[in-house]
Design brief:
- This protein has one domain.
- It is about 90% helix and about 0% strand.
- It is built from 5 helices and no strands.
- The model has no long low-confidence stretch (mean pLDDT about 75).
Length: about 160
C-alpha cells in the first residue's frame, strides 16, 4: 500500500477512534462530576503539552529554525484571538443563549483548525520516523477522547 495512503488511514483511524470513544463516554455518563471532567481536561492538556514540548517542537527545530517554529506558534495564537474577536463582535448581546452559541462556534472553529495540524503532525511524525508517527497517533487518539466527551456533553446540554 502507498505510504501516504497508509499514513492517512492511520491518522483517520486514531483521530476518529478517540473522538468516538469520548462521545460514547460522554453520552453513557449522564451527569459526570466536575471533578471527573476537570481530571479529563487536565489529562488531555497535559498530554498535548508534553507531546508539543518533547516531540513536536524539537522536531520542528531540527527541520527548520527557531524563528520559523515560533512564527507558527504565534500565527496559531493570533488566529484563535482573531476568531474569538469576530465571534464576540457577532454575538455582543449578553444573553446566556448567545454565550452558549458563541462558545459552541468558537469550539467548532478551534476544533476544525486544530484537527488539520493534528493530521499534519501525524504525517510529519511518520515522515520523520515510524516510532514518532505511532506515538503521535496514539497520543492524539488519547487527546481526542476528552474532546469527544465535551462535544457530546455540549450537544446534550444544547438539546435541552
Amino acid at each position: 500500500m502507498n505510504e501516504i495512503l497508509k499514513t492517512t488511514l492511520i491518522g483517520l483511524f486514531f483521530g476518529t477512534f478517540g473522538t468516538t470513544i469520548g462521545g460514547i463516554i460522554g453520552i453513557k455518563f449522564k451527569n459526570p462530576s466536575y471533578k471527573f471532567l476537570s481530571f479529563i481536561l487536565a489529562f488531555a492538556s497535559g498530554l498535548m503539552i508534553a507531546i508539543v514540548c518533547f516531540d513536536l517542537l524539537p522536531e520542528a527545530f531540527l527541520l527548520s529554525s527557531l524563528p520559523v517554529a515560533f512564527l507558527g506558534i504565534i500565527l496559531g495564537i493570533i488566529t484563535m484571538i482573531f476568531c474569538d474577536m469576530l465571534i464576540d463582535k457577532k454575538f455582543s448581546v449578553k444573553r446566556k443563549q448567545n454565550n452558549l452559541l458563541k462558545t459552541g462556534i468558537i469550539v467548532s472553529i478551534g476544533l476544525a483548525l486544530h484537527n488539520f495540524p493534528e493530521g499534519l503532525a501525524i504525517g510529519s511524525g511518520f515522515g520523520a520516523s515510524l516510532t514518532l508517527g505511532i506515538s503521535l497517533a496514539i497520543a492524539i487518539c488519547l487527546h481526542d477522547i476528552p474532546e469527544g466527551i465535551f462535544q457530546s456533553r455540549h450537544q446534550v446540554k444544547c438539546a435541552r
